[in-house]
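Below is how a single chain appears once it has passed through the pipeline. First comes the sequence as given, then the structure the pipeline wrote out for it. We keep one example in the README because the format questions we get most often are answered faster by looking than by reading.
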Amino acid sequence: MMPSAGHPTPTPATLTSPSFTPNLMQPGAHSTRVDRPLQGAILTRSRWCAVMGVLLLLSLILIMLCLQLGTQYIGIGHLVELLSSALVGTASEPDAYRTTGVILLQVRLPRVLLGFLVGGCLAAVGVALQALMRNPLADPYVLGVSSGAALGVAIAVLFGIGTTVLALSLLPVCGFAGSLVALLVIYRMAASYDRLPIHSVLLAGVILNAIFSALIMFITSIMEPNRSFGMMAWLMGSLTAPAYPVLIALAGYLLVGLVLLLKQVRVLNILALGEEPARSLGIDTERTKRVMFLLSALMTGAVVSFSGMIGFVGMIIPHAVRLVVGADHRLLLPASTLVGGMFLMVTDTLARTLFVPSEVPVGVITALAGGPFFVYLLVWRKDRLA
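Resulting structure:
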């Protein structure tokens, strides 16, 4: 609806409500259900800073807690001392602290940081895909993007790329190529007309996920037994402590994608309302979809190449954060990134501590949490789905 002559054009902050999207309401729904959230939809600088400050503080607290827990408990005083000595560059005490220092700095710290990066990026991609498709079921795992990235990495490992030094840079590239192929196939399958129907995208993603999973299983079956076992463990989703150069390379991939996503938050606010309002405000919706799909492929491919297929993080976290902070992507995207990082970091800590000396793949825990949540969205909140 066009604004009247004496009123300014509405901005994305006033167009967005904390409910998923206004046009997801059923035609018979009462207007009071939308009017109430709209009263708190305006995002102020002080509210943004308060929410992000609390999340950053909570992230630091959880990082310290996760670093303490494991097969060998590390007290907070000992932990702070080891971290400070590593930062300053001073040598720690011999014997007693040496083993603990190796466990902390070479195993736990890179693994916790990897979990934070992977979880944050999966949640950020989930926010972008849900805004594009206006559907809380959109997720890299559900759409087959993760399976495409896993297929790209599996092919690379089959030809020996994963055993060379070049794997530091080539495995994320192979994952990116696989996820990009998945998104392109979904786009071509669904775009029968000039637009990209939402239900067609979800259906195409499910079909493609099944095909890619079958191809991955075929590749795994023809590998040597030792490599096949490692591939199966990786496919279930696992966070093994990477070397710091690998961690830095992954952080570089992901930070580029996150920065580019953050630059699109205002466009996501408009797209979440529907394609027609977006076009009326001058947004090239098809071009925006291609750019967002490219960024999603970049981030998903890099994540899957190091952590395997960790599902449902991109579905659970954006939906939960949206219910708390609202649907304005200027806050929703960075907040979901932090919460996603915390979520995967904590679940990985549970995976490596609950059944010591055995370790459960973190993808199993996220699937156990995400599966019932998926059913909840699909059955009990079907009035909110596009």
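Residues 151 and 216 are 6 Å apart (CA to CA).

See the next section for the split statistics.
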